[in-house]
Amino acid sequence: MRNIRLAAAQLGPIQKDESRQAVVRRMIDLMDDAKMKGAEFIVYPELALTTFFPRWHHEERAEADIWFEREMPSAATQPLFDRAAQHGMAMSFGYAELTPEGRHFNTSIIVDKEGRIVGKYRKVHLPGHDEFDPERTHQHLEKRYFEPGDLGFPVWRILGGLVGMCICNDRRWPETYRVMGLQGVELVVLGFNTPSVNSQNSSEGLEKRMFHHKLSLQAGAYQNATWVVAVAKAGVEDGHHLMGGTCIVNPDGEIVAELEGEEDGVLVHDCDLEATRFGKETIFDFARHRRIEHYGPITAQVGVRLPPG
Ligand code: CDV
């Protein structure tokens, strides 16, 4: 056994006018709860410090900088780092990053048990659009406010295992998991903000959206023999509903723990990293079975090229 006792720390809604300090207080409460339950690694959602601001259109792009962090830790987040170090707990959370060069990313970090940032990931697959779209039921302006991540999909040695990150929409893309799978990943942690309504097809329904969410996680876990932990920001934010669905998926692709509800809450599970070995050494032994001579189009083209005729 090579266990990581992991806490998936779901956040309920964060309203537009809620301060970073207030959110950090909620995150610390969840951390204290996770500590009582014996967790050594806590994972929070995408853009954990604010409301899901890409639903709001700022005519002036720079106005949106109020949602971004210029440093990490910041004065507002330092208490979270301090409490994590005090508990000896590693953590991962998402935030909007504004770099000293003026670049904007949708970012997640891993902080080790001593409170040091040891991993950074910037969201690669940005959904949505970059201009106000009157045809949609609501806006999803990630392409307006962020540039695509420039760090790839690294995997870090931490907590005795191989841990990678992705963010929300990344979970729907098999390439995300496979690039980490090719680095031996044993645990993928991710946060998400998923509206319960499809802005371009309101008849889709929550049930189908939840199905696609779980399908993506379960396929990614199974096909790469890795644990996957997905953590929601859920509930009604400023009149817009985000779905829940915080869950932990084992390397067989089975959901082994699920959080009910759309409030702040912690889901704790022992993830035995040794459980990744069987899949990695048999059906998904990449070294023996992958046929890269046939995979060229995956990196050579973006859109679909129809066959001739
Ligand atoms: N934050 C996200 O990336 N949300 C997308 C929505 C827009 C579909 C998601 O994939 O859940």
What topology emerges from the helices and strands here?
Blueprint: E1 3-10, H1 20-36, E2 41-43, H2 78-87, E3 90-98, E4 104-111, E5 117-122, H3 142-145, E6 155-158, E7 161-167, H4 174-181, E8 187-192, H5 206-224, E9 227-232, E10 235-237, E11 240-242, E12 247-249, E13 255-258, E14 265-272, H6 277-281, H7 286-289, H8 296-300
Parallel strand pairs: 1-2, 2-3, 7-8, 8-9
Antiparallel strand pairs: 1-14, 3-4, 4-5, 6-7, 9-12, 10-11, 12-13
Helix pairs in contact: 1-2, 4-5
The structure holds 3-methyl-2-ureido-butyric acid.
Explain what the structure shows:
This protein is globular. It is built from eight helices and 14 strands. A hairpin with a 5-residue loop joins strand 12 and strand 13. It is α/β, with parallel strands linked by helices and about 300 residues long. It has one domain: Nitrilase/N-carbamoyl-D-aminoacid amidohydrolase (4-Layer Sandwich), CATH 3.60.110. The model has no long low-confidence stretch (mean pLDDT about 100). About 25% of the residues lie in helices and about 25% in strands. The strands form three sheets. Strands 5-4-3-2-1-14 form a six-stranded mixed β-sheet. The chain has a six-stranded mixed β-sheet with strand order 6-7-8-9-12-13, with helices on one face. Strands 10-11 form a two-stranded antiparallel ribbon. Bound molecules: 3-methyl-2-ureido-butyric acid (CDV).
List low-pLDDT spans: none
Described by strand count, sense and barrel closure, the largest sheet is: 6 strands, mixed
- Write down the secondary-structure element order: EHEHEEEHEEHEHEEEEEEHHH
Main sheet strand line-up: 5-4-3-2-1-14
Overall tally of structural domains: 1
CATH class: Alpha Beta
Specify Rg, calculated over alpha carbons: 19 Å
Q: Which class of secondary structure composition applies to the elements?
A: alpha/beta
Second-tier CATH architecture: 4-Layer Sandwich
Number of alpha- plus pi-helical segments: 8
Could you report the average pLDDT, rounded to the nearest whole number? Answer: 98
